Amino acid sequence: MAENVLHIENVTMQFGGVVAVNNLNLDINQGEIVALIGPNGAGKTTAFNCVTGVYEPTNGKIDFLGETIVENFPHGKMKKLYAGENMGLYSNVVSHTPDVITYKGIARTFQNIRLFSKLSVFENVLIAKHMRAKQNFFSAALHLNRAEEKRMREESMALLVEQGLDKYKDDVAGSLPYGLQRRLEIARALATDPKLLLLDEPAAGMNPQETLELAAFISEIRDKYKLSIFLVEHHMDLVMNISDRIYVLDFGKLIAQGVPAEIQSNEKVIDAYLGVSEDE
Amino acid sequence: MMGNKKRDFILSLILAAVITALLVYVDKEMHYSMLASVIQKASIYALLAVSLNLLNGFTGLFSLGQAGFMMLGAYTYAILTIPLEQHASVYQYFNGGIVNICLPAFVGVIAAGIVAVIFAWLVGKPCLKLKSDYLAIATLGFAEILRALIQWEVLGPVTNASNILKKFPKFDSILTPVIVCAFCIFLVVLLINSSYGRAFKAIREDEIAAEAMGINLAKTKMQAFLTSAFFAGVGGALLAMFQASVQARSFTSAMTYEILLIVVIGGIGSITGSIIGSFLYIASSEWWLRFLDDSQTYLGVNIPFMRGGFRMVVFSVVIMLIVLFYRQGIMGTREFSWQGIIDFFKKPFAKRKRKAVEDNG
Q1: pLDDT band at B114; cut points 50, 70, 90
Q2: What is the pLDDT of residues A109-156, one digit of tens each?
Q3: What CATH class has A1-97+236-280?
Q4: Angle at the Cα of B229 (from B221 to B216), degrees rounded to 5?
Q5: Structural domain boundaries of chain B?
């Protein structure tokens, strides 16, 4: 069996009285592409935000490469309000800010593109390299470590060439066409040297042709950078094409999981999300 | 490409030589002229504006505590460098005060920056979590509290309470402030062009994305805040040297607004803009627009409105016009480059040439 990369265990996220994610269990193994699908408001992005440290889940545990990166149990105000399961199963609090999670090797893109839109394409990628730079504030400010700066620039340039964005190197990121902005956002995430890449609706707003290209692109970067990929997506062509396994959320609860063929024929999933085509 | 670099280098060298020659001339021949004093004050304000711009323009933190940090710098410098034999006369109401050291001016200026940094850390720890306007209010409040604190009678033996501090070393040449400020601004430019400078800009553009890219928001914001405070402290010390006296009463929030005004005129996010803005603003307020404050008579008619304070009315109108119609300021977010200047002068010619060709054809 392949190495486990991400292990989400009994994660519940409750906002006040609203349970956005209810007892989610999910595993991603090395080299897999795993999709999380479900109707709008099912809690897909909330699940993402729990993994990346934007939210602290109310209850549950998340392991990344064998290390616990998030753990929480209902305490304080939530103790009385908590409506989920597995109360009392966990007793530790482990939480990190998003930058630490990124440092550990989980990179993400956003549902609505969040580029540094007034900076150049090159700078966008270069900023992602900052995190792993070893120079301290003073040596960097006085430009003492030129070798490292040069290495950062070369690596960023190499990445842009690989992604076919080198032509746009000096363009302002916000001026790129939509598809390229998506691609740049992925390139920027790759620049943080991740082991797991989280893509939040990468095909949103793309036409069928672009979606097809994106599917090929995702498989390609998975192989090239030896990544595992976790994606949230509404384009079923894309999801069914490239996913190794699919999880389906509805109202915060996991209603199905399995390989694409199983999901496509699963009654519950068809009822909740996929629907039946008219000619049937 | 290489040719351009060489050309820029030579042009910069020529410019530096011309400026130095001019400064030396002004220093020798017209040491007490208005021009000399404008040059000194404007270079100090340029440093202060750059330090504020580092926060407002490059990191996107709207801070209004600059006057507080300047005051800390000015007081630290003054307290540490007053010659021992002058203590009795300066601290006449406090038996000569309790600070019995006198450091060289150079050390005093560095200490000014360091004290400002220490206080900035204390303020930044709770305040930097705040966003936009809230941060502005918190830092503004801090500066006001500090001003009251320094004037407190109990601290008198150190700060001389609300009395004036004077008789500390001053500039011996107008070149000193210009060189010190130019050097400090050079350091800021280096910082902005480094990896940390890019992290600042990332935070300005999008905090959430910056954090997702592995930038520690709290730490990076603190770095920008402390750097800005350091240079504000140094600027405050230089201002004390220029004015030859320090009094808490003069470091009001109006002083922060003055600097903010320079940043806005010059362009938020442009170092060059801050420098140009500072020279324009100081020259206008100290020199060119002085006449607005005196009553004037043209052709036998006494112009109404022209009396003490009218200058500030004109400034207010100017800032309103800038904010309404010219939000980018002089430079926007652009920086000085020789290519930019050459293109600027070429443009009208190029247009004319093209037009001539079109007319002929």
Answers
A1: very high
A2: 998 889 999 999 999 999 999 988 888 888 888 888 888 889 999 999
A3: alpha beta
A4: 10
A5: 34-251
With bands split at pLDDT 50, 70 and 90, how would you rate the model's confidence at B350?
low
pLDDT at B1 over 50: no
Cβ separation A115–B209 shorter than 8 A: yes
Q: Where along chain A do its domains lie?
A: 1-97+236-280
Closest residue in A to B203 (Cα–Cα): A116
> Bigger pLDDT: A1 or B200?
B200
Token pair for B240: 């004390």
Tell me the mean pLDDT in the region A101-109. 93
Q: What chain B residue is nearest to A137 in terms of C-alpha separation? A: B196
Residue ranges of chain B whose CB lies within 8 Å of a chain A CB: 187, 190-191, 193-196, 198-199, 201-202, 205-206, 208-217, 223, 227, 333
Quick check: B116 pLDDT over 60?
Answer: yes
Distance of alpha carbon A83 from alpha carbon A12, whole angstroms = 9
B329 DSSP assignment: T
Distance between B210 CA and the closest CA of chain A, angstroms: 8
Kindly report the three-state secondary structure assignment for every residue of chain A: CCCEEEEEEEEEEEECCEEEEEEEEEEEECCCEEEEECCCCCCHHHHHHHHCCCCCCCEEEEEECCEEEEEECCCCCHHHHCCCCCCCCCCCCECCCHHHHHHHCEEECCCCCCCCCCCEHHHHHHHHHHHHCCCCHHHHHCCCCHHHHHHHHHHHHHHHHHCCCHHHCCCEHHHCCHHHHHHHHHHHHHCCCCCEEEEECCCCCCCHHHHHHHHHHHHHHHHHCCCEEEEECCCHHHHHHHCCEEEEEECCEEEEEECHHHHHCCHHHHHHHHCCCCCC
- Are A132 and A100 a contacting pair, CB within 8 Å? no
Q: Is-contact A215 A230, C-beta < 8 A? A: no
Q: Which among A117, A118, A141 is the nearest to B196, CB-wise? A: A141
Q: What is the pTM of this model?
A: 0.89
- Residue A208: pLDDT band with limits 50, 70, 90: confident
Whether B205 and A97 lie within 8 Å, measured CB to CB: no
Predicted ipTM of the assembly? 0.89
Report the alpha-carbon distance of residue A55 to residue A249 in Å, rounded.
Answer: 18
